Structure to design on (378 residues):
């Protein structure tokens, strides 16, 4: 049983039920479209009478699902919600109206909603209806869960997770263009879980040429959780139109980002049902695609969480752009590829990059180790 600590002003039971709501929200992550993954738990007389999480596609929201399960038992109950209930009319009525109509006596919220259409308005409506409201319980945990949704609203870009699978000497392949299996099946399964929790996954054209990846989630039971697939290539030179990622673009949505130099080559990919977005080159002299422009486009597409999976030059471009918020480093301590291998960050020293990040998790995965890092705030 997990150890639960109550925040100041809240009881141990409050913290326990909010942890429950957070677990429900985590399970929905990656499948709620542009909407945040939210969890809701309704408790009456110490007993859970209703639970809900944001449904696939983003609707219905967590609160009406929990209220439907609770039925008449919601009257006089406490609702624990990981994000402030919405207060605006969209494709569905506001969750605040549903909570008020159900007659709940108390609503405990982990964090306010950064969406300007809500942003305190939901709590205000609940309080005006005579409902006891409290906010801030397990807020750091909720913010970590909703980091992509928050960042898209605050900075106009998604949260970026860089995933690296490296040998003991920091290589990602035995030689350029050579697919190399480095980590174990257990590590691969964990990486696929990360895909399932992401809204989009991105690789460079070089990775498509070398590895011909599917970029789907193939965990049993989660096959329908594959993220949007993104291929990044300045001019699409040598990117084969018959690669698996394009051959299956009619089944799993796929987007290609290139500069105007790749416009003509993109026609063959459009015929394969891939969408094409033309973005400018970076301002530096390297002739690379603008990472910032790509992220801005993804924010317009309502992408909250982006997983960058390869290759070395793409990883370096995102690091140098200063937009990598988290690093998932899978390392195989027993595998060494030597000086002829491909460095993980195309010449950047991995140790120096990690010095700017804080270790959040260290998890053994069979013969391998996963270390997750979070960028330290200046």
């Amino acid at each position: 049983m997990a150890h639960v600590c109550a925040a100041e002003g809240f009881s141990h039971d409050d913290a326990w039920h909010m942890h429950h709501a957070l677990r429900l929200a985590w399970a929905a992550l990656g499948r709620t479209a542009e909407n945040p993954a939210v969890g809701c738990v309704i408790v009456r007389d110490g007993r859970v009478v209703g639970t809900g999480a944001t449904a696939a596609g983003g609707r219905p929201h967590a609160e009406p699902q929990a209220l439907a399960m609770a039925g008449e038992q919601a009257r006089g109950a406490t609702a624990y919600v990981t994000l402030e209930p919405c207060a605006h009319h969209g494709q569905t009525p506001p969750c605040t109206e549903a909570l008020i109509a159900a007659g709940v006596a108390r609503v405990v919220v982990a964090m306010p909603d950064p969406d300007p259409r809500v942003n305190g308005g939901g709590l205000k409506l609940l309080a005006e209806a005579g409902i006891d409201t409290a906010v801030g319980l397990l807020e750091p945990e909720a913010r970590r869960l909703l980091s992509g949704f928050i960042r898209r609203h605050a900075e106009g870009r998604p949260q970026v997770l860089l995933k690296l699978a490296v040998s003991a000497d920091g290589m990602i392949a035995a030689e350029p263009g050579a697919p190399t299996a480095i980590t174990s099946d257990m590590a691969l399964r964990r990486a696929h879980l990360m895909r399932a929790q992401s809204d989009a996954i991105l690789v460079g054209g070089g990775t498509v040429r070398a590895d011909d990846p599917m970029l789907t989630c193939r965990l049993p039971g989660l096959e329908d959780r594959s993220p949007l697939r993104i291929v990044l290539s300045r001019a699409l030179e040598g990117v084969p139109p018959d690669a698996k990622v394009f051959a299956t673009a009619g089944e799993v949505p796929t987007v290609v980002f290139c500069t105007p130099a790749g416009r003509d080559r993109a026609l063959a990919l459009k015929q394969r049902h891939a969408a094409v977005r033309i973005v400018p080159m970076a301002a530096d002299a390297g002739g690379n695609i603008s990472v910032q422009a790509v992220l801005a486009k993804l924010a317009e597409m309502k992408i909250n969480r982006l997983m960058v999976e390869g290759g070395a030059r793409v990883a370096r471009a995102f690091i140098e752009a200063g937009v990598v918020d988290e690093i998932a480093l899978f390392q195989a301590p027993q595998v060494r590829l030597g000086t002829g291998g491909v460095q993980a960050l195309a010449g950047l020293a991995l140790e120096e990059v990690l010095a700017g990040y804080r270790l959040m998790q260290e998890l053994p995965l069979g013969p391998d180790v996963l270390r997750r890092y979070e960028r330290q705030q200046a």
